[in-house]
Amino acid sequence: MAPTTCLRIPFLPARGRSANVNAPPSWLPRRLSLKSSATNGPFTSADVMGADWKGLKVAYQGCAGAYSEAAAKKAYPNCEAVPCEHFDTAFQAVQNWVVDRAVLPLENSLGGSIHRNYDLLVQHSLHIVGEVRLEVHHCLLANPGVKIENLKSVMSHPQALAQCEHTLTGLGIEHREAVDDTAGAAKIVAEHMVQDTGAIASSLAAKLYGLDVLAENIQDGKNNVTRFMMLARKPNILRNDRPFKVPIFVQIIFHCHTLSSLCNFLPLSHLVLIVTTTDQLYGQFVRQA
């Protein structure tokens, strides 16, 4: 079966943060994959316990065979994973009722935070309803018959290239070419039948695009884990019988004392601030038991 084409949303109506994203736009027939216990209310644990997610449309960024697709299927088994060209497209697809959920990366243990998705969280009225962690195992792929010594260059996502830098140098592959995603690199190599260029992607991408796996686990660091957020139009009802994480975005303008005042407040509210980026003050408040 041919790989699914990436979703593009060029002309969807814009919906601001003040819009009611719990109701579908007038131009789209109403469709709900899950029924909440309260009409138009947030989902509870009872709503999702035991759900097999069959028929649920879940957006991810990248082409078929991307790590994000594996994360989407890990988060929602039996779902229909929908590839999107860009992170923005996945956010728009959920907000405009084209899909039900989205699974997108927030941070990687080696590469750090994906700042673009933090920005998009601020710009859209979606809710983080869970997270899933995926171990990343990079493979060196090439067309059938091609050997490692034949490779003069390799293409992949910039983070994947950076995570395999020392290994690639040790293999004598000096030239790097960055593309939008790992599976997209595998697709390009396969479609153009190049003999001197390989791709860094998953073993699933190799199988999907008919490539050979020349080397497995080529990442420089052993602990390579990506944390993905699960996005929905409705929030979850938080339980009070265990610790939980709540992403909060703080904007500080011209007031240098604001951060110190905020930190003084945290012990009184039993919250801990975990700053995840430095270019803007993004962080998580973790409630202590």
From TrEMBL:
Which pathway? Amino-acid biosynthesis; L-phenylalanine biosynthesis; L-phenylalanine from L-arogenate: step 1/1
Report the main location listed first in the record.
plastid
The record ties this protein, via InterPro entries, to: Preph_deHydtase (IPR001086), Preph_deHydtase_CS (IPR018528)
Q: What class of enzyme is it?
A: lyase
UniProt keyword annotations, A-Z: Amino-acid biosynthesis, Aromatic amino acid biosynthesis, Chloroplast, Lyase, Phenylalanine biosynthesis, Plastid, Transit peptide
- Listed GO molecular functions? arogenate dehydratase activity; prephenate dehydratase activity
Annotated EC: 4.2.1.91
Q: Which GO terms describe its cellular component?
A: chloroplast stroma
| Span of domain Prephenate dehydratase | 57-233
Please give the Pfam families that the UniProt record associates with this protein.
PDT (PF00800)
Domain of life (superkingdom): Eukaryota
Location in the cell reads:
Plastid, Chloroplast stroma
Q: What is this protein called?
A: arogenate dehydratase
